Amino acid sequence: MLLPAPLKEPIVALIGDQCYVSLVEDFDLTDVPCIKYAISKALGFGIVVGGSIVKIPQILTIMNAGSARGLSLASYLLETLACCITFAYNWRQGNPFSTYGETCFLTVQNIIITLLILFYAQRYSETSLTLVGYIAILYGLTYLIPFWVMSTLYAATIPISLASKVPQIYTNFINKSTGQLSVFAVVNYFAGTTARVFTTMTELDDPLMLTGNVLASVLNGILLIQVLLYWGKKLEDEKPRKAD
């Protein structure tokens, strides 16, 4: 099957000439490697697109409520640091954007959420210092730090990423509520990290990235379970008081 150039070119750019010929022109559904590669690329593209908006509902939830109660500052500080390192490592490694692109958008969105948590806690000086700090970190990781150091830092993102989830899980457990935590963000984060396990296995020979993605998917699954368990439950000081 021959496609016009405006349709052919984006598909070729996504899956390559060989798989385009096999899957589209020859319609060979027995070409398992190309089918897996095409699925991986489609998932990767979807994750990047999803990553560009996944935290927007969380940002809007905080701003609409005028509060960041129930959100763990420690979780977002650690998660943002891990995103900064992951983005810089992959960018300097020259990996396909489809295998890490969401970290670019997640970094920006996590920085915004971290600043909002500090702002609504009326910690204004810390808000400014945190913004300056993240800009300096991103610049240093992207342009100044030697690559061998970046590899070591990337290995450290696995425990950092995992540790970033633990305070939020613990906060939810203690409060028996997820507070202002966005359901949309949690669901999409779980779906994204689970799909990223498949794309990493298919496109990259990197056991370190695969291990990190598997463990991230597990912890995001725990957060999803908490959202389902505590659905509709408010924090104690948000519940209406009984009349005396």
Structural class: mainly alpha
Whole-number average pLDDT? Answer: 81
The global form is globular
**What is the share of helical residues?**
over 70%
Would you identify the regions where 5 or more consecutive residues have pLDDT less than 50? 240-244
Largest sheet: none
Number of strands: 0
Number of domains: 2
Task: Bin the strand percentage.
Answer: under 5%
CA radius of gyration is 21 Å
Helix and strand element order: HHHHHHHHH
Distance linking N and C termini: 76 Å
Quick summary:
This protein is mainly α and 244 residues long.
What do you see in this structure?
The structure is a single chain. This protein is mainly alpha-helical. It has two domains: 5-30, no CATH class; 38-234, no CATH class. Helices cover 76% and strands 0% of the residues. It is built from nine helices and no strands. The chain has helices at 5-25, 32-51, 56-65, 73-93, 102-120, 124-144, 147-175, 183-203, 207-229. α1 (5-25) packs antiparallel against α2, α3 (56-65) runs parallel beside α5 and α5 (102-120) runs antiparallel to α6 (124-144). The longest helix is centred in the middle third of the chain and has 29 residues, at 147-175. The termini are far apart. 36% of the residues are buried.
How are the secondary structure elements laid out?
Elements: H1 5-25, H2 32-51, H3 56-65, H4 73-93, H5 102-120, H6 124-144, H7 147-175, H8 183-203, H9 207-229
